[in-house]
Amino acid sequence: MANSTEVFSLPRWRLTQWLVDPGRPVTPEIRQALVSNLFGSLSVFVGGVINTVLVAVLIASYLQRPPFYMWAALEILICTSRIMLLVASRRMARAGRRTPTDWHLVLGLAWAGSIGTGTYLSITSGSWLAAALACLSAAAMVGGLCFRNFAAPRMTGVMILLVLGPCVAGAIAAGEPLFMLTLIQLPVYVISMTSAAFRMNAMLIATMESERESDHRARHDPLTGLPNRASLLHEIQRMTARLRETHQRLAVFYLDLDGFKHINDMHGHGSGDEVLKLVAERIRGVLRAPMQAFRIGGDEFVLLVGEAERNDLQLLAQRLLRVIQMPYTLPNGLQVRIGSSIGIAHIEPQGQTPDTILDAADQALYIAKSRGKGRFHFAEAS
Fold first, then answer.
1. What's the superkingdom here (predicted)?
2. N or C: which end of the chain has fewer CB within 10 A?
3. What residue numbers bound the domain in which 23 lies?
């Protein structure tokens, strides 16, 4: 599998898009992961290249005929191009640049076609030593193709046809009756191997979906759907690392609901949960990209605003206070009101950890609440 730090581009051509389509609905994230898997391990790929090039060169040296010299040259050209493209694609993926995924897929088909062409030439050469060596190599490569490319089962099926289809044509051209058995073997083999690729692909997608669902549950609050405290700490760390390079400041809003405990005590925790969900919706409605909101527990929310002028932060805080204090109508028809207080840490991230940044915003929140609630307060951290 490709490294998680390498992001490979989705194909743009209609043919290559069809080749990598898994045949079932998947999320864009999983589709991206499936395409990345097609770039595979460089060491495994090089092993297959050495095998096919070596077979082509040995047969050409043994038979010493122009068609085989041409096949060996074609095999070397395709394999060299694939290695160069794969290395370049990995560099582009690590750098966040668009990768030549379409050409990577096309060269894969060309490689399969070259193997099939060499097999046909060997079967029709009259040399059963060459035929046996080429067929053995082709059969071995089919297994590798299924292993490396089941993330795109359609491409797996096409490559198997390109590798083994010429075997049937060669058997017919050779006129050997026993060889005609391949007319029965090939369809059965292609169907069975392609079906296996689709089953493995379905298992891979199911595993990816399960992993992403588990990761989502671990990083998000199940009640409001907002990212949780673990996600917040990770995002602050990521943002501060980026802001250190640009020498910008980070604005963190620490928000606490005023009067929420009264709703829980008077109307029950079910009503309290409904209020929290409605508050989360209103916060989402106020924020604009790239701002982010988190629920870190109880009635506490944190907003990451990033670099902004103090006046803009004041306007945002005022709007949040105004929106949150508007009446809430719960599903049971009950109407309730709450307020909120906000602590704002507008600080430079140099030398600050996620915990110290949150502590600064929390202290500002404490001051805001001590001054009568329903207001905001800035804290400038050293």
1. Bacteria
2. C
3. 14-215
Apex 95 CA angle, 93 and 98, nearest 5:
50
CA angle 192, 15, 201 (to 5 degrees): 35
* Amino acid present at 165: G
Strands 300-306 and 292-297: antiparallel
Q: Are 7 and 36 in contact (CB under 8 A)?
A: yes
pLDDT for the residue 380: 65
Instruction: Categorize the per-residue pLDDT at 1 as very low, low, confident or very high, splitting at 50, 70 and 90.
Output: very low
Determine which of 19-23, 68-72, 174-178, 197-201 has the lowest per-residue pLDDT on average: 174-178
Judge if pTM exceeds 0.70.
no
Sign of CA dihedral 24, 25, 30, 35: positive
Report the number of distinct structural domains present in the chain.
2
Question: Is 376 in contact with 344 (CB distance < 8 Å)?
Answer: yes
**In this structure, are residues 67 and 114 in contact, taking their beta carbons and an 8 Å threshold?**
no
248 versus 87: the higher-pLDDT residue is 87
- Range name among 70-79, 203-212, 344-353 with the lowest pLDDT average: 344-353
203 with 286, same domain: the answer is no
Q: Examine residue 5 and state whether it is found in any structural domain, yes or no.
A: no
| 8 Å CB contact between 101 and 8 | yes
Q: Is 44 helix (H, G, I), strand (E, B) or coil?
A: helix
Candidates 197, 206, 155, 195; CA nearest to 30 is 206
- The three-state secondary structure class of 5 is coil
How far is 231 from 313, CA to CA, in rounded Å? Answer: 23
271 and 154, same structural domain? Answer: no
Which residues have CB under 8 Å from 237's CB, separation 6+?
354
